[in-house]
Structures are given as C-alpha cells and as structure tokens.
Design a protein that fits this description.
The chain is mainly alpha-helical. The chain folds into two domains: about 60 residues, Multidrug-efflux Transporter Regulator, Chain: A, Domain 2; about 55 residues. It has six helices and two strands, in the order H-H-H-E-E-H-H-H. Strands 1-2 form a two-stranded antiparallel ribbon. The longest helix is centred in the middle third of the chain and has 35 residues.
C-alpha cells in the first residue's frame, strides 16, 4: 500500500482519534515531529502510522519530555529501526555466503566480526579523555 493509500484521515478526524486539538497536529508538523501526506491540493492526510506516532508523542509529552527531546527520541527510534534492518540484511547475506562458499569462509568472516566487536568494546571501556585530576 502506498503512502497515499494509507493516509486516509483528515486533520480533524486524526486529531479526534488521538485526543488532540487539530492545531496541536499542525504545531507538531511545524516542529518536524510529524510529516503527514499532502494531497495535490495541500490537504493533510494522516495514516495509521501517523496516528501511532502522535500517540507516542503524547505519551512522551505526558511523561515530561519536551518537544526537542521527543524529536530526538523519534530520530533514535528511526535510526534503531534502520540499523536493525541493516543487521538483518547482513545476516541474510552471511547465511547466503555460507551456503554458497561453505563454512570455512563464513567462519573466517565471523571470527573477523568477533575481533572487531571485541576491539570496539575495549575502546568503549578505556578512558583516554582528559583526566579528572587536572
């Protein structure tokens, strides 16, 4: 289903469904928290994903998170989803290479990945920054 097909709710209906004022939805859009589909005539149309996002925004706001904090949380969630997808794709490619080339090449790649992971964890635990005694 395309974004156009999924975006079916006009602003007044979307606002009512999530228990907000339509002006609040406009503010969230201006602040970059929401990007509803626009018809060729410029009318906002909201999808179920937009409504879910509005409910998350509302939950975070009620928990005391300001709009900039909410924007950061949303960006981190998006980045997390992107990275999770990338890891899934890389795992699939590794499995395909294992079946195509056998386990010897894949085992070598896994060992390289483990060594890299260990190096990264060592870097995180070392404190090479300025000492606090100065």
């Amino acid at each position: 289903m395309t974004e156009h097909q999924a975006a079916v709710y006009i602003i007044s209906v979307a606002a009512e469904l999530v228990g907000m004022h339509p002006q609040t939805l406009r503010v969230y859009e201006r602040r970059g928290l929401l990007d509803p589909y626009r018809t060729p005539g410029g009318t906002r149309r909201y999808s179920q994903d937009d409504l879910d996002r509005l409910l998350l925004i509302q939950e975070l706001s009620n928990a005391g998170v300001n709009l900039e904090g909410i924007k950061r949380v949303l960006a981190l969630r998006s980045e997390n989803a992107r990275l999770t997808s990338q890891v899934s794709r890389l795992r699939r490619l590794l499995e395909e290479s294992e079946s195509r080339w056998g386990t010897s090449v894949a085992s070598s790649l896994r060992a390289d990945v483990r060594r890299t992971k260990n190096l990264l964890s060592i870097r995180r635990t070392d404190s090479f920054g300025p000492s606090s005694s100065n």
